[in-house]
Amino acid sequence: MMKSKTVTAAMIIIGDEILSGRTKDANLNHLAAWLGDHGIQLREVRVIPDDGDIIVRTVNELRTSHDYLFTTGGIGPTHDDITAENIARALGRPFVQHPEAYAVLKQHYGPEGLTEARLRMAMMPEGAELIDNPVSRAPGIHVENIFVLAGIPVVMQAMLKDVAKRISGGDKTLSKTIHVFHGESFFADILGEVNEAFDEVSIGSYPFYHDRAYGATFVLRSTNDGALEAAVKLLKEKITGGGHDCFDGEPSFRSDPKE
Amino acid sequence: MMKSKTVTAAMIIIGDEILSGRTKDANLNHLAAWLGDHGIQLREVRVIPDDGDIIVRTVNELRTSHDYLFTTGGIGPTHDDITAENIARALGRPFVQHPEAYAVLKQHYGPEGLTEARLRMAMMPEGAELIDNPVSRAPGIHVENIFVLAGIPVVMQAMLKDVAKRISGGDKTLSKTIHVFHGESFFADILGEVNEAFDEVSIGSYPFYHDRAYGATFVLRSTNDGALEAAVKLLKEKITGGGHDCFDGEPSFRSDPKE
Question: What ipTM score was computed for the predicted complex, to two decimals?
């Protein structure tokens, strides 16, 4: 049997606007699903303010404890765009002008348009590589195991195309979903038993309330396909054996925005 | 002049389903705005997996460094509902049956329906108070400076009514917003100058792209109303003095879901 390989990631969302409630983050969910598709397990996310010392401390805690670290937010030309300089500080690397980024900006703005503020977008930790930004000006940054991405969702998502070439995933986590139209407490013992019986399978129970329908969705996850199928089979047998119906997949209103 | 009072909070979102990308968190934004309305600054959010040791470590890091700590997710009757027992572990408190929670469950399920799984919902850190849950069965928990809330948004939001009676906020952060229809890099120097000129005001610059309109929104925030107004006035003067138009508030498409 092949040895399984787990590859992990953490994410830092940098932004006062998220913590104040002004802006709804849309990057966490997108990155989480994208990483899963690439065989990388997102293990922790932190949302922190635009504060250099906090960025440095958080980057250093998470980059050493995960295979990859992703940040979103705080790249660009204004005074509150402080991510790049603090990534450099965290890594103990000089903060220098990147020749390629400089050339791109010079072409776009012309030599007279290259203000000090715009030149900030060419400043990177020494040795960093640019991540292509097909939407706007400020490139992303790849340095060591860190990917520094934009905060604007459309830009962040566009940058992932370039990131995909630079990462290497492990075993994909597979999942199977079933649901019931009874409260989850009816199935708590069964769920616990099946969870205990399969070391390699984790089971989550998520109650739902939708208009007057309620029930629970059970999500089984594993990197081992055989164990996953066996756990699903056992759980279904136990549910129907107890006199309840169960159904494959998510309930049909799952994508309903009202949920 | 009255001394200003800053009250801070942190939030822990407990849930494999958020980290796997299955579920979009909807609690962060709601709690962030709610705390702001109550004069409490949300300073850090962490999303962590359903793992007892990680919950204990994260709770202990954040409860001691903030005035309040909020958790969402992992309360209920199933094997993956491990928040309450790990809050007890973090605080070094016994994990005991709460008489009032027990009475509520007994009334709802009847003495025969009180399975071991359902009784889990009456287990709390010793000395905890219940947070009223008007939607479903599992109550929230208030212990020391920690509020343990449900993960399901409609339940979590309903619990905040009871939480409101138990918190005490500080100075409210006020904000003013203006926007321009030019790239933020045109205004980077001006923004930096105004930001420097007012110690008590922080300024965020948020570019937007909307169909073919683009520009930037500038958000000024302060607990000092006078300083805020003066900073807004100075920023507007500098923008119009540089030959650009600026407009109050968010751009009109701000609430458009396409943004």
Answer: 0.93
Q: What are the structural domain ranges in chain A?
A: 8-164, 174-255
Is the domain spanning B174-255 CATH 1.20.1440.20? The answer is no
Strand A140-143 to A41-48 pairing: unpaired
- pTM, full prediction: 0.94
Q: Which residue of A has its CA nearest to B194?
A: A79
Which residues of chain A neighbour B30 with C-beta distances below 8 Å?
21
Which positions 161-180 of A are in contact with B (Cβ < 8 Å)? 173, 175
Which pLDDT tens digit goes with each residue over A50-90? 999 999 999 999 999 999 999 999 998 999 999 999 999 99
Q: Would an 8 Å CB–CB cutoff place B188 in contact with chain A?
A: yes
Contact A201, A252 (CB under 8 A): no
- Domain B8-166 sits in CATH at 3.40.980.10
Determine contact: A182 vs chain B, CB below 8 A.
no
Tens digits of per-residue pLDDT, A158-171?
999 999 999 999 99
Distance CA(B55)–CA(B50), nearest Å, equals 8
Contact A120 B188 (CB under 8 A): yes
Q: What is the rounded CA–CA span in Å between residue B13 and residue A163?
A: 27
